Amino acid sequence: MNIFKPLVLKDSVEIKTTPEKIWAFFYNLEENYKAWHPEEHVLFKWTKGKPMETGSGYYAEEYIHGKLRKFYGTIGEVVPYRKIVFNHGFPISLASAGFELHIEPKDSNSVFTSVSYIRAEKLMRVLVKFSEYKEMENLIKIGQKHTREEGENLKKILEGKND
Predict the structure, then answer these.
(1) Are the CB atoms for 87 and 93 separated by under 8 Å?
(2) CA-to-CA dists, residue 71 to 52, 82, 127, 157, angstroms
(3) Nearest to 18 by CA among 115, 147, 104
């Protein structure tokens, strides 16, 4: 039994747009963050380096489970127009290494995929019982709902601009 095996959450949406337009949305994340998820996203700022470059730092605020959360981190890997890896900073990094955004061309469309990682699933299932979430399934549902809404919102934003 591997108590340190991560839990991987993944959600994809096909968008009628090019990888370049999706990339431009994230390159301008400071301006687009709130529109990406208006009910929960509050603020995103680049704190070090340039947008979408490996090693650049970021700060974000968003509501999760009704509470304002603050995140710090760095960009871990960038493959222009295809992949962005956001690494969470401490203390969030203890529970989650971060998340990845993937962009894949598909005919004249693009598939946008968000992948989140929760460290040590079996250990986290025990620890989360002592948190406000009470059960790991609650935390998973909240994360999946948020990620799905982000994909749907991105689709609406980018397809609306293409009309």
Answers:
(1) yes
(2) 17, 24, 20, 24
(3) 104
pLDDT digits (tens, 9 = 90+) for 93-139: 877 889 999 999 999 999 999 998 887 566 566 666 656 656 667 76
Q: Where are the domains of the chain?
A: 8-161
- CATH code that applies to domain 8-161: 3.30.530.20
Residue-wise pLDDT tens digits, 3-36:
667 778 899 999 999 999 999 999 999 999 999 9
**Cβ atoms of residues 74 and 59 within 8 Å:** no
Bridge partners (DSSP) of residue 113 are 12, 102
The span from the CA of 77 to the CA of 101, in Å, is 10
CA 82/CA 102 separation, integer angstroms: 6
